[in-house]
């Protein structure tokens, strides 16, 4: 593949242009079951070569899924033509870096027969049904595996390779008892089939679905809230523009002018860590071939940096942080890797708080410019260290910046989200508005 990309790059440089190429290839197996039978079984594969050309300060994009000479020639031609009709963009340039980086995760494993995979996929539905007669349906269940690899080549001589294989399972439980319904789902991902936690996703789905049958509302008022790691991750990711230099360029970042200022509690430090050893998958380089390293976004409450690619770095006259994000057919963007929320000044848990385990309506109820949001939640009410009630039919609302200022650290252990890409010490948010009865 590298030889093909080098041949295409020669065409780009022969046209007195600069550019880069991104190639990705994936093959996927997916299956799910209904009524003790395999309901869906799909094997797919795809490949795409993306072309980005920069000529006379203008950027042109194109892509092709075919790799024959005619298709490759056409992709270069289209990118050149697209560049001619775009606006002049002095900030988008090919990075002056060369050399090779390999980021290929290969985990040795024994071959697993498809009959075993099929049987385990069926169990994601059948076991849940057999363990509780109140399960009325298992709408979300499935097994999938994916092989993925990609290459990057720039006209400056940067070449990178990435390879990964992952497995994933999902299951859910919709329960009904005396006209009351509840539901919960769980998932797990792994780099090997043998490490998939089938029992864990089944037991977790059943545990919470059973409890949610007993849910009740709360009186409207102010409460202390503790979010599960997955729930907190969802909220933080919803407002990822707060850390984005591109969002600052586009005037969509409320923190755009606050570098060097305290924006959240001084007890919190937030780090983007692409190489964190507990992460599901580390990341050595970004979509421009820039080597990655940990980036402190907020240090003891003070905003230290945004996510930058080369375009935003040129615009703001700074350096890229290695957070370029671009697919073969997409324009340049920025995106973070794995987040670590660290804390100090640990306080004891309050006697009473609401633990949130399920969110609904986050993105539809969020204003990413102001930081305000409103969403329905479910979870558990805790008093004096004991779970005393299951809570539902309530809505919480507020502003993310207020949340992150009215927070206390209540533990030292970094707890992981289910996908192992988000890690946080236990946090309690005080004075949260809850609308219930």
Write the H/E string, N to C. HEEEHEHEEEEHEHHEEEHEEEEEEHEEEE
Main sheet record: 8 strands, mixed
Q: Span from first to last CA?
A: 62 Å
Task: Quote the beta fraction.
Answer: 35-45%
Query: If you average the pLDDT, what whole number results?
Result: 96
Rg, rounded, reads 24 Å
Number of strands: 22
Give me the secondary-structure category. alpha+beta
Shape: globular
What ranges have pLDDT less than 50 throughout 5 or more consecutive residues? Answer: none
Number of helices: 8
Q: Tell me the domain tally.
A: 2
Q: Which bin fits the share of residues in helices? A: 10-25%
Description:
- The chain has 437 residues and is an alpha+beta fold.
- The protein folds into 2 domains: 2-212, 2-Layer Sandwich (PmbA/TldD fold); 215-437, no CATH class.
- It has helices spanning 2-14, 69-84, 114-131, 198-212, 229-238, 245-249, 310-315, 400-405; strands spanning 18-34, 37-55, 58-64, 99-104, 135-137, 142-154, 158-177, 180-190, 221-227, 268-272, 295-299, 302-303, 324-325, 333-334, 339-343, 352-360, 372-383, 386-399, 407-409, 415-416, 422-424, 427-435.
- Strands 1, 2, 3, 4, 5, 6, 7 and 8 form an 8-stranded mixed beta sheet that branches. It has a 6-stranded mixed beta sheet with strand order 12-11-10-15-21-20, with helices on one face. Strands 9-16-17-18-22 form a 5-stranded mixed barrel.
- α3 runs parallel beside α4.
- The radius of gyration is 24 Å and the shape is globular.
- The mean pLDDT is 96.
């Amino acid at each position: 593949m590298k030889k093909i990309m080098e041949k295409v790059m020669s065409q780009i440089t022969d046209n007195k242009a600069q550019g880069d190429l991104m190639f990705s290839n994936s093959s996927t197996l997916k299956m799910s079951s209904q009524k003790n039978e395999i309901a869906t079984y799909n094997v797919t594969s795809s490949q795409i070569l993306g072309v980005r050309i920069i000529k006379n300060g203008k950027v042109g994009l194109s892509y092709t899924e075919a790799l024959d000479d005619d298709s490759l020639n056409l992709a270069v031609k289209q990118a050149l033509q697209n560049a001619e009709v775009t606006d002049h963009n002095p900030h988008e340039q090919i990075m002056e870096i060369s050399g090779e980086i390999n980021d290929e995760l290969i985990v040795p494993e024994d071959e697993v027969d498809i009959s075993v995979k099929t049987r385990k996929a069926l169990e994601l539905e059948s076991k849940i049904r057999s363990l509780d007669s109140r399960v009325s349906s298992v709408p979300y269940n499935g097994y999938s595996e994916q092989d993925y690899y990609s290459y990057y080549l720039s006209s400056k001589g940067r070449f990178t390779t990435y390879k990964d294989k992952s497995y994933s399972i999902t299951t859910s439980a919709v329960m009904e008892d005396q006209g009351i319904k509840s539901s919960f789902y769980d998932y797990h991902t792994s780099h090997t089939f043998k490490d998939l936690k089938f029992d864990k996703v089944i037991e977790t789905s059943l545990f919470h679905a059973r409890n949610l049958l007993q849910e009740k509302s709360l009186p409207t008022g102010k409460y202390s809230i503790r979010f599960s790691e997955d729930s907190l991750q969802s909220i933080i990711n919803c407002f990822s523009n707060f850390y984005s230099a591109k969002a600052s360029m586009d005037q969509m970042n409320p923190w755009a002018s606050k570098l060097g200022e305290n924006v959240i509690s001084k007890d919190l430090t937030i780090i983007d860590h692409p190489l964190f050893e507990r992460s599901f998958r580390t990341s050595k380089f970004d979509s421009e071939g820039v080597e990655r390293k940990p980036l402190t976004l907020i240090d003891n409450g003070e905003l230290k940096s945004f996510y930058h690619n080369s375009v935003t770095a040129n615009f703001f006259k700074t350096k890229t942080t290695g957070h370029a994000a671009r697919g073969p057919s997409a324009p340049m963007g920025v995106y973070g890797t794995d987040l670590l929320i660290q804390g100090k000044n640990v306080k004891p848990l309050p006697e009473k708080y609401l633990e949130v385990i399920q969110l609904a309506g986050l993105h539809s109820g969020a204003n990413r410019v102001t930081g305000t949001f409103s969403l329905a939640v479910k979870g558990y009410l805790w008093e004096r260290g004991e779970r005393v009630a299951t809570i539902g039919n309530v809505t919480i609302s507020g502003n993310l910046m207020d949340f992150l200022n009215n927070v206390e650290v209540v533990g030292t252990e970094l707890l992981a989200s289910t996908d192992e890409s988000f890690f946080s010490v236990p946090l309690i948010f005080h004075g949260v508005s809850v609308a219930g009865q």
